[in-house]
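Is this the right way to post structure tokens for a design question? Let me know if I should format differently. Anyway, here goes:
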């Protein structure tokens, strides 16, 4: 398994419609045994990277670097847009995405959030949005720079903010460890600021979609789908052994999952030409079961249209581990048709966590186990936001990265 496949396992991946326990059994995962470890001192929460990275870039981001000043959000909607017509949301998005100009750099800034319940009971808790992000400039040759963003964690709603202030407005908020260790972790309500820059090379781009390869992708939806189905990777995120194969070899939900992940990359982080991005929107519109819903606000407060994917469950996985969730989730996209832009991908609670499951020992050799009482969404209800990735900026620009 190479770095791209390994880091892909750290993302929230689309899964088959089955319970986490059935999934653990299907991939032949077996937990270790041992007695409970003693209570450990709380530690800062280690969050997963949402964007696929590879090679030395991933190692540098893990190590950290000097902070820089975060830039401001990008421009608003383009001047010439096609009016939204009911029933063709993705086609309108495609038309407007195709109008976008090319530039010297593909500039993206994304913020990812995991929603944590803080408190001891369903009657007395508040929610915190634990955030991190990336900002990147990728040139037409695939080289560029990226910065790791560590903004403050924030109360999810105004009501949650009131409860946080009533609890003392603590900078470090203690929550149960969701990764299975016996102990607690901290949410940082102040953040540490951006770090970087770190170099980007063509080998760091998701799914091997270098600019040269992106330029060669078809701009007709069916032809684009056929080309993407030939992409090779370890698409079975839940098998015991890695196996590279084309998406075309998959069937049913697994094929939809893999094709959806690549499509999301084309609509967000990949430096795809406007015509390819437009074709990706049209391809998505043609997929069976993809459904447009009503208007809503994304996690950053921007208005968009909900696009539901024909999948019943999402399962966040850790590196070489069994599923680390005890509930089930649905996934939806939020699209701004007028801007031709994917605003966000978000996972909603379908069934709250319940029960428990042992896990293999951690790096310290101590046994671990999952328990519903420690899950971030332990007090959530069906339909509540569990996690998200919002694309604050995703556009071609001639402006070089900051020096």
């Amino acid at each position: 398994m190479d770095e791209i496949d390994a880091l892909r396992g750290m993302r929230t991946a689309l899964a088959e419609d089955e319970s986490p326990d059935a999934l653990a059994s299907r991939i032949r995962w077996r937990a270790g045994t041992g007695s409970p470890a003693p209570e450990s001192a709380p530690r800062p929460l280690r969050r997963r990277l949402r964007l696929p990275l590879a090679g030395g870039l991933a190692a540098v981001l893990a190590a950290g670097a000097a902070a820089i000043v975060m830039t401001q959000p990008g421009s608003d909607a383009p001047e010439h847009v096609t009016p939204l017509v009911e029933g063709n949301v993705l086609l309108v998005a495609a038309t407007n995405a195709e109008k976008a100009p090319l530039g010297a750099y593909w500039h993206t800034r994304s913020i990812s959030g995991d929603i944590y319940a803080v408190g001891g009971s369903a009657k007395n808790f508040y929610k915190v949005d634990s955030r991190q992000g990336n900002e990147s400039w990728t040139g037409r040759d695939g080289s560029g720079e990226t910065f790791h963003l560590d903004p403050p964690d924030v109360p999810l709603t105004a009501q949650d903010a009131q409860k946080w202030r009533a609890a003392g407005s603590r900078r470090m908020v203690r929550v149960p460890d969701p990764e299975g260790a016996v102990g607690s972790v901290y949410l940082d309500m102040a953040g540490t600021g951006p770090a970087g820059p770190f170099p980007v090379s063509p080998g760091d781009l998701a799914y091997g979609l270098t600019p040269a390869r992106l330029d060669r992708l078809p701009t007709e939806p069916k032809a684009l789908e056929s080309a993407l189905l030939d992409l090779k990777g370890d698409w079975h995120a839940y098998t015991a052994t890695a196996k590279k194969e084309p998406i075309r070899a998959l069937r049913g939900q697994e094929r939809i999952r893999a094709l959806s992940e690549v499509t999301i990359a084309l609509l967000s982080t990949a430096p795809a030409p406007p015509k390819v991005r437009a074709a990706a929107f049209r391809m998505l519109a043609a997929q069976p079961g993809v459904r447009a819903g009503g208007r809503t606000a994304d996690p950053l407060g921007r208005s968009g249209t909900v696009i539901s994917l024909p999948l019943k469950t999402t399962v966040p996985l850790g590196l070489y581990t069994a599923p680390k969730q005890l509930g089930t989730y649905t996934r939806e996209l939020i699209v701004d048709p007028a801007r031709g832009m994917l605003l966000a991908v978000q996972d909603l609670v379908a069934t709250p966590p319940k029960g428990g499951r042992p896990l293999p020992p951690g790096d310290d050799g101590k046994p671990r186990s999952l328990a519903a009482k420690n899950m971030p969404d332990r007090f959530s209800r069906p339909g509540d936001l569990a996690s998200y990735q919002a694309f604050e900026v995703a556009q071609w620009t001639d402006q070089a990265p900051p020096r």
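Format looks fine. Someone answered above. Worth noting: The chain has one domain: 3-34+43-70+81-397. The longest helix spans residues 252-266.
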